[in-house]
Amino acid sequence: MSTEHRRSRWTVRTPELLVPATLGALLLAYFAVPFVAFLSRTGAANVLGGLASSEAQMAIRNSLLTAPVSTTIATIFGVPLAYVLARQSFPGKRLVEALVILPLIVPPVVGGAMLLTAVGRFTPIGSAAAAAGVPLTDSLIGVVLAQTFVAAPFVVITARAGFGAVDDRLEQASRSLGYGPIATFWHVSLPLARGAIVAGIVLTFARAIGEFGATMMVAYNPRTMPTRIWVDFISGGIDAIVPLALALLAITLVVLAAVQRFGRVPTVIDR
Amino acid sequence: MTLEIDALTHQYGTEPAVDDVSFELEEGELVAILGPSGCGKTTIVQAIAGHVSPTAGRVLLRDGDVTTLPPEERQVGVVFQESTLFPHMTVGENVAYGLAAQNVDVDRRDSVVDDYLALVDLSAQRDAYPAELSGGQRRRVELARALAPEPDVLLLDEPLSALDRTLRERLREEIARIQRETGVTTLFVTHDQEEAMALADRLVVMNDGHVAGIGSPRRLYESPPTPFVASFLGRSNTFSATVCKRQPPTLALEGNGVRGEVTLANSSVDAAVGETVTCHVRPSDLAVDSSNSAESPLTGEVDHVADLGRRYDVTVRLEVGQELVVAQTSPPPSVGDVVGLDLSPGKLTIFETSHEEHAGTEPTPS
């Protein structure tokens, strides 16, 4: 009895997380291997030389110009929408929620085609805008339209989870202390959901700056970094795209660091 | 009148939560709404604060109808069951929050915050964040925050229910002191009858969305207006009987093929002869009488005895079948003894069985 007891104490226990950790490690390896393989090409390519070309500089300029604008638009309209979705039940709410998810489900290239059918050059809106001197396709505005369409759901969904985690009794307390709904939003709801909203903004930015499918349909020109990468790849293969790809990666890494700095990234989970 | 609730009715969808509730609070009064969970207490608080728009009825503050006003335009302070301190603000900023809305200038704001933190004895915690405070300290900060803008009415919605017993009793004293010192008209919502009776000048007892009784704790305890109040306030024995005679009031108890009559002293019966009534008597108003076991229908066998330290609960099974509990401090009879029960004069409360469960508003005793 006692020896048995002792033996069981010395048996090495299988760690509880062995199975999920193994499965997760396989996926991580699958992420890491292409990444490392791609980076190993950098030696063969002249990165700085590649980035010095006027085409590359124009693409970087266009991307750094459009992605922040798209992110700002998505934030200005998306955060209020997220707040309403987190706080209010109304008939047709499911439909609204489905609409928010729609750009995530539709393949970006199809999303781009949808945008073309709405604001393309030969549609009433597109032709009117072109006549007024602000073409909605093949322009920086077109790039912003495509990026906003594809990337905005991220800030809506993340901010909504953030507002959902704020107890609405805190808002009631603020109201009873003399603050109207908008003042309460500024002083209580917004600061408390700040982490989630920032994370959502960052995700939206990362998605916008990397947007290719919809952008290609709506504004193949002027080139952004992703469309430039595509053009370089067609003409020069993998090595030709390494400089711009690394630049894009660097921007995305800065973005990622920002996410880490603002704490945990809330997952895309409803309250 | 500082606060007046007039025929307040509220439904969530088709679910009625509060039905035709009326009561009022005088200046400086502390009134408790007491009732089991789900009786509509919180809905009333939410309607007074303006977070719920009632289906019907009115809320009046200082004689002005505020039913349709948003919460920020009513001078109502609220403390909820769970902490609602703003976690991103310090204690001082939390207390100053309501003052800033009233455009009180910064210097004055500072001194008011000092005063209210001193009132709740938390001056040293002014720069702490809510997460650094204990549960009891958080409650006190919330009281200070709710009181600082000097509201017309302070609403306390189960403010002590989330705390442990010792802390609850200490904070109860604290609330009583703060209410005395500030003189703020207070509506205290609780399901705990001891808490309500210890704190309140008057009670509004609620059951199932209705008012079951309004009055001072002692009056409601001693002469409950409805069977619900009788059974909810303190412990009570309930049994049914038939009216035999109205002068002097005589009731018949029947069961197990046995029938006996009890003549009551110092009581009156409104029900007609032959009608069935429900009787309530408190365990402390019954006494075991071992010598008198002859003709009274209140005779039975001791079923069990519980020793509760300060007193004994003696359960007696009557010959007519009903069980009554007697509370006594003297040594109890043994299980199996046949005893008679003496009823203190005037302590039996009689309700007609068809009695409506809810009472109307009663005049405020002055």
From TrEMBL, chain A:
GO terms for molecular function: transmembrane transporter activity. Keywords: Cell membrane, Membrane, Molybdenum, Transmembrane, Transmembrane helix, Transport. Residues 60-259 form the ABC transmembrane type-1 domain. Pfam families: BPD_transp_1. It comes from the Archaea. The chain crosses the membrane at residues 21-44, 64-86, 98-120, 140-163, 184-209, 229-259. It is a multi-pass membrane protein. InterPro entries: MetI-like, MetI-like_sf, NifC_ABC_porter. Its main location: membrane. It is found in: Cell membrane. GO terms for cellular component: plasma membrane. PANTHER family: MOLYBDENUM TRANSPORT SYSTEM PERMEASE PROTEIN MODB. Belongs to the binding-protein-dependent transport system permease family. This is NifC-like ABC-type porter. It comes from Natronobacterium gregoryi (strain ATCC 43098 / DSM 3393 / CCM 3738 / CIP 104747 / IAM 13177 / JCM 8860 / NBRC 102187 / NCIMB 2189 / SP2).
UniProtKB/TrEMBL annotation, chain B:
Belongs to the ABC transporter superfamily. Sulfate/tungstate importer (TC 3.A.1.6) family. This is Molybdate/tungstate import ATP-binding protein WtpC. GO terms for cellular component: ATP-binding cassette (ABC) transporter complex. The complex is composed of two ATP-binding proteins (WtpC), two transmembrane proteins (WtpB) and a solute-binding protein (WtpA). Its EC number is 7.3.2.6. GO terms for molecular function: ABC-type tungstate transporter activity; ATP binding; ATP hydrolysis activity. It catalyses: tungstate(in) + ATP + H2O = tungstate(out) + ADP + phosphate + H(+). It comes from the Archaea. It is a peripheral membrane protein. Keywords: ATP-binding, Molybdenum, Nucleotide-binding, Transport. Part of the ABC transporter complex WtpABC involved in molybdate/tungstate import. Responsible for energy coupling to the transport system. Transmembrane segments: none annotated. It holds the Pfam family ABC_tran. The keyword tRNA processing does not apply. Its main location: membrane. PANTHER family: SPERMIDINE/PUTRESCINE IMPORT ATP-BINDING PROTEIN POTA, SPERMIDINE_PUTRESCINE IMPORT ATP-BINDING PROTEIN POTA. It is found in: Cell membrane. InterPro entries: AAA+_ATPase, ABC_SmlMolc_Importer, ABC_transporter-like_ATP-bd, ABC_transporter-like_CS, Mo/tungstate-bd_C_term_dom, NA-bd_OB-fold, P-loop_NTPase, Transp-assoc_OB_typ2. The keyword ATP-binding applies.
